[in-house]
Amino acid sequence: MKIEEDAILGEFFDTPEKKARWMKRIVYLYLVWIFFIIGGLVVAILVYLLK
């Protein structure tokens, strides 16, 4: 089943423009998530090393 045919998500991905806009947002959110993971690991390592 295509995402465009889904009952809930179909309205967000029904046109190519909407699909491209949402894919760009998802990529940006993914990059922000990666930065938070790396930042959390750095803070955890610094706390461990400074104790």
What would the keywords be for this entry?
51 residues, mainly alpha
Notes on the protein architecture:
With 51 residues, the protein is an all-alpha fold. It is 69% helix and 0% strand. The chain has one helix and no strands. The chain has one helix spanning 16-50. It is rod-shaped and about 55 Å long. The model has no long low-confidence stretch (mean pLDDT 93).
Number of helices: 1
- Kindly, what is the distance between the CA atoms of the first and last residues, rounded to a whole number of angstroms? 53 Å
**What's the order of the H and E elements?**
H
Overall outline: rod-shaped
Give the percentage of residues in beta strands.
under 5%
Mean pLDDT: 93
Tell me the helix content. 55-70%
- The count of DSSP E runs of length 2 or more, i.e. the number of strands, is 0
Query: Which sheet architecture does the biggest sheet show?
Result: none
In short:
By secondary structure, the chain is an all-alpha fold. 69% of the residues lie in helices and 0% in strands. The protein has one helix and no strands.
